[in-house]
Amino acid sequence: MSTAKLKEQLTSGLIYLILAIGAVVMLMPFYWTLVTSIKIPAETIAYPIVWIPSKITFGWFQQAWHANFPIYYRNSTLVAVAVLGGNVLGSAMAGFIFAKYQFPLKNLLFLMVLATMMIPFAVLLIPLYYIVVQFLRLKDTLWAMIIPALISPFGIFLMRQFISTIPDELLDAARIDGASDTRTFWQIVLPLCTPALSALAIFHFIWIWNDFLWPLLVTDSDKSRTLPVGVALFALARWQQFNLIVAASVLVILPLLIFYLIFQRAFVQGIVLTGLKY
Amino acid sequence: MATAARQAISAPQTAAGKKHSTFHPIVLWLVPILGLLFVFSVLPIVGSFFLSFFQYEMLQPLKFVGLGNYIYAFTRDAVFLTTLTNTFYYALLSVVVGMTLSLMAAQFIFTRPRLQSFFRSTYFLPVITPMVAIAIVWRFILQPSQFGFLNGLLGYVGVRAQPWLTSAVRVIPSLVIIGIWSGLGYNMVLFLAGLAGIPSTFYEAARLDGATSWGMFWKITWPLLSPTVLFTTVTASIGALQIFGIPYIMTRGGPENASRMVVMWIQETGFKQFRMGYASALAYIFFLIILVLTLVELRYLRTQWSY
Q1: Secondary structure element (H or E) that encloses residue B198, with its range
Q2: How confident is the model at residue B16 (pLDDT cuts 50, 70, 90)?
Q3: Range of the domain at B55
Q4: Which whole number is the average pLDDT over A104-108?
Q5: In 3-state terms, what secondary structure has residue B130?
Q6: At CA A127, angle to CA A123 and CA A132, rounded to 5?
Q7: Is B152 in contact with A227 (Cβ distance < 8 A)?
Q8: pLDDT of B250-295, one tens digit each?
Q9: Distance, CA of A253 to chain centre
Q10: N or C: lower Cβ tally within 10 Å for chain B?
Q11: Are both A113 and A165 inside the same structural domain?
């Protein structure tokens, strides 16, 4: 074997070693989480680390589940579905109009969309709270989390960029065949946008499922708390009960993990599309 | 805005560029869509700017204070200045180290086709893990005693149990570790897409000319990947500066104020101390800082791909 080839193989081996160490670092917290959620306390607070528990219990899951988990799940799901629905349709419609029609103040309105996209949420916080809580009186309801998030400027922007690439000839052909604008939107534009829309939906789903600051401010009781807020407050009140809280976080991780394992390709493509399609 | 769309006389842009001045009722859909955006985004943005010049404590009447809030923030509010330093320290460390590691991981995975999808899915796993779960689990991993998981691991190599989140010096680096762990996969996937966009003929030609892989990285990959680097750095910085949930759950800003971040302080002044005018001013200061930083990044990173 030539020295060049040997060197090449050594480099390759080293790179795989680094990647493998990286993978272990990435996976270790997951392993630890899973094992802790089924351990008995004596083996949790132990030194050296107990890697494989001698006794397994599912009691922590049961306890965690009974702490209003079904309500948090329901709330999170309802908010996510409503927000996704509004965003997907609203973004596609507004994106279509901005991309393919002329109307007065068009540029100014689009500039408004772009400007709101760039402003950090902290800036909106206080007046938004005033509008939603004092004016609309929506405190401690799911609407408080749904309505402000129904339309996202980023979604409108993304869809406008995407729909701009649809050839005008196609839309003209539909028009000549007698399709109305609305019908063109539903039957031609929407189907063509599926990749962008699913990317947008995934992006928004991760975001809304994780949203923490706003739900923390507008909820007061478990009846309206979403999963992140419910679980965070549950954990903050019981830091001493190691296993229980870790079991609770397994319950939080699980739905998204299953979702990811099924739609892995769409997830990754969605990230790339929402991240790079500029 | 609503009336503008209502009066809209629109015309489709045809391929020939001709404009029919027919009214397209579909444009009316913009009224509810942009109406919502106006009420829940534009109005709050303007309202916040307005409030930042007032002393406003929810139930009391507004009192105009001019630039008072802004001056107070920089001269009398030591906590705000601490949160600014903390947030910048966190963002700088996590963006610089995080970007370097993401790019390395992407480059390594991209050039070694074997096990590519395994590594990609593994590194991406923390990205889809909900933030609350990350905060809870890592708080236990970083327990200060020898029973903490990380300290347990360090015990194998003879390192004594360290305080992580309870040490003023180590708390932000600890948050950086968590930030990198959870965000690496996201940036890596973007870098992988960027790498896939570089024509392989460039590398083949360079290899024929006897280029080393190190040389090819700096002469081909780096310049052609700059748009991706620019984009990921800008979004990662904006995201890192707005960190809230992780320190809120893990440290509540402690020890002392060592891990209190800007958004936490805005939330605290606005919703716990009810100084809402002041909190609005802090939010605007924060926004301007992010804006300037983004412009600087755009300018600095853009110069590198002008050739």
Answers
A1: none
A2: very low
A3: 12-69
A4: 89
A5: coil
A6: 125
A7: no
A8: 998 878 899 999 999 999 999 999 999 999 999 999 999 999 998 8
A9: 12
A10: C
A11: yes
Q: Do A15 and A139 sit in the same domain of this protein?
A: no
Same domain flag for A27 and A117 = no
CA-nearest of B49, B281, B208 to A115 is B49
What is the domain count for chain B?
2
Same structural domain for residues B24 and B106? no
* Block residue for tokens 């139930």: B59
Judge if B115 and B234 occupy the same domain: yes
Contacts of residue A21, Cβ cutoff 8 Å, sequence gap at least 6: none
* SS3 call for A141: coil
Residues of chain A neighbouring B9 (CB-CB closer than 8 A):
103-104
- C-beta of residue A37 within 8 angstroms of C-beta of residue A250: yes
Q: Give yes or no: residues B23 and B126 share one domain.
A: no
Structure tokens at B16: 């020939």
Please say whether the beta carbons of A173 and B59 come within 8 A: no
**Does any domain span residue B298?**
yes
CATH number for the domain that contains residue B180 = 1.10.3720.10
Chain B CB contacts of A233 below 8 Å: none
Q: Cβ contact (<8 Å) for B30 and A102?
A: no
**Is residue B3 a part of any domain in this protein?**
no
Same domain? B260 vs B111: yes
Q: Are residues B85 and B227 in the same domain?
A: yes
Q: Which domain range does residue A73 map to?
A: 62-276
State the CB neighbour count (10 A cutoff) for residue B257: 17
Q: Is B136 on the interface with A (CB under 8 A)?
A: yes
Residue B138: is its pLDDT beyond 50? yes
Pick A168's closest partner by Cβ from B13, B231, B249: B13
A97 and A172 in a single domain? The answer is yes
In sequence order, what DSSP letters do the residues of B257-290 get, joined into one string? TTT--HHHHHHHHHHTS--HHHHHHHHHHHHHHH
Indicate which of B14, B19, B26, B298 best probes the interface with A, i.e. most A CBs within 10 Å of its own CB. B26
Residue type at A213 in one-letter notation: L
Q: Are B144 and B162 in contact (CB under 8 A)?
A: yes
What is the Cα–Cα distance from A232 to B78, expressed in whole angstroms?
29
Asked if A22 contacts B105 with a C-beta cutoff of 8 angstroms, the reply is yes
**Comparing A213 with B304, which gets the higher pLDDT?**
A213
Number of domains forming the structure of chain A: 2
Q: Which H/E stretch holds residue A101?
A: strand A101-102
Q: For residue B7, tell me if it sits in a domain.
A: no
pTM of the predicted protein model: 0.86
For A35, how many CA atoms within 13 A lie in the half-sphere containing its CB?
Answer: 17
